[in-house]
């Protein structure tokens, strides 16, 4: 019975590691919408403290980094929650380097909301 228990423990540890890697690198889910000449970016990153999150922009690339310390109480059976978020995404707006600006960033109930002014929209082309 000891061998079966050991094999099962190793199997679930591998599953835990792979699922956490998935959540850390594929997620978090992000929504974008336009409102009053602002791009609103909504990111679901529950389980982090506000002090764990860093938001930055370089040109039109938005970077969201978050890392939390492991606080394990008791014996850990399974661990799938991400400890690290490192998300970079190219925004669908034109932002000149050096003119990056964020109107506001709020983190409430596990949801990060970032408001970015749209500085330049594409030109409308008239048809002849």
Automatic annotation (TrEMBL):
PROSITE patterns: SHSP. Signal peptide: none annotated. Residues 21-128 form the SHSP domain. Pfam families: HSP20. InterPro entries: A-crystallin/Hsp20_dom, HSP20-like_chaperone, Small_HSP. It comes from the Archaea. CDD domains: ACD_sHsps-like. Belongs to the small heat shock protein (HSP20) family. This is Hsp20/alpha crystallin family protein.
């Amino acid at each position: 019975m000891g061998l079966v228990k050991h094999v099962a423990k190793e199997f679930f540890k591998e599953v835990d590691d792979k699922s956490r890697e998935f959540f850390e690198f594929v997620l978090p889910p992000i929504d974008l919408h336009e409102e009053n000449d602002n791009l609103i970016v909504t990111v679901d990153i529950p389980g982090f403290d506000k002090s764990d999150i860093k938001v930055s922009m370089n040109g039109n690339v938005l970077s969201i980094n978050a890392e939390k310390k492991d606080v394990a109480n008791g014996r850990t059976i399974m661990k799938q929650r991400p400890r690290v978020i490192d998300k970079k995404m190219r925004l669908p707006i034109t932002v000149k380097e050096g003119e990056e600006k964020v109107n506001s960033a709020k983190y409430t109930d596990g949801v990060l909301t970032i408001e970015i002014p749209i500085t330049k929209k594409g030109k409308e082309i008239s048809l002849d």
